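Note to self: keep these together.
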Amino acid sequence: MRIYIGASGIEVIMAMLGFLQTSESMTIRERLEIASHGAVQVYDGAMALKLTELGFSVEEIYRFVAPRRTLARRNANGEPLTVEENDGALRIVRIAEMAKRIFGDGAVAFDWLRKPNRGMDGIAPIDLLESETGARLVEQALHQIDHGIYV
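Structure:
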């Protein structure tokens, strides 16, 4: 069996192959930018330190985003955070905003995040935010609270 593709079909296939090659040569940051249509927040050192305005301490930012010296260097050089560091910043922002929405008050939300949790065998939710897996567990607990399931 033979399949014949007209000139326009070949152009479409060539364009698709060109896109795939271009996509492979892009950095993950460039791909995230394109895929999110610019909606992904990209932090630099100074912006990361402003996360204290959400309720995080500077020490927590160093713990969850990047070490003190790394953020100082990025800030001094005006560099963006790496993808992994940026993911850490986005993770804590996502959890803080979710907790504030559910509890209706930032102070109450951060009290909950910092207090040992019975449903997590005495671990404070904030101590799980160093990984995406831990953040998912915190989100799950927040969803349960939001739906009236207190553990």
